[in-house]
Specification:
This protein is mainly alpha-helical. It is 60% helix and 0% strand. The chain is elongated and about 75 Å long. It starts with 38 loop residues before the first helix and ends in an 11-residue tail after the last helix.
């Protein structure tokens, strides 16, 4: 899976805790992959495992609520990605999925703003509306303003 870098052979590694290669002034810092739990939790194995289980359960509840919201009213996809963000605070696989998703959404937004794509989308929408208008016109010409379930055998 491509994680957003065009560099061949990039390997996902945990953040360097030594601080020797810190960012220079004016550069953005990007968190390395791995757990973002506080150090006192990471230092105790059982506490860290409990922390991970808690994060997983909370993320699972949020993702489950988002899945329920897909057919029901509510921001289903936003909630699902919120659950993924909760998981990404602790799990590398979720961080990689979110990184890939962000890149794909950015690429889709760039393509959607492309003038050629916008013209094509507008053209297809107009053609679809014309076809629907013609079909509604044929229906009204043949049956008048009568609902389909009240049409008698004609």
């Amino acid at each position: 899976m491509n994680t957003g870098s065009d560099e061949p052979g990039e390997v996902a590694v945990a953040a360097d805790k030594t601080g020797t290669d810190g960012p220079e002034a004016g550069q953005e810092t990007e968190h390395g992959l791995g757990s973002r739990a506080p150090d006192f939790i990471k230092s105790r194995r059982l506490l860290h495992l409990s922390w991970q289980v808690g994060v997983f359960v909370i993320g699972l509840a949020v993702v489950g609520a988002g899945i329920v919201m897909l057919p029901l009213p509510g921001p289903g996809w936003v909630v699902i990605f919120g659950g993924m963000a909760i998981w990404a605070t602790e799990f590398v696989w979720a961080q990689l999925v979110l990184r890939w998703t962000k890149r794909k959404v950015t690429e889709a937004a760039q393509r959607a703003l492309d003038p050629k794509v916008r013209r094509r989308n507008i053209t297809l929408t107009v053609i679809g509306l014309v076809i629907i208008g013609v079909l509604v016109g044929i229906y009204l010409w043949k049956f008048g303003f009568v609902m389909p379930w009240k049409i008698k055998d004609q």
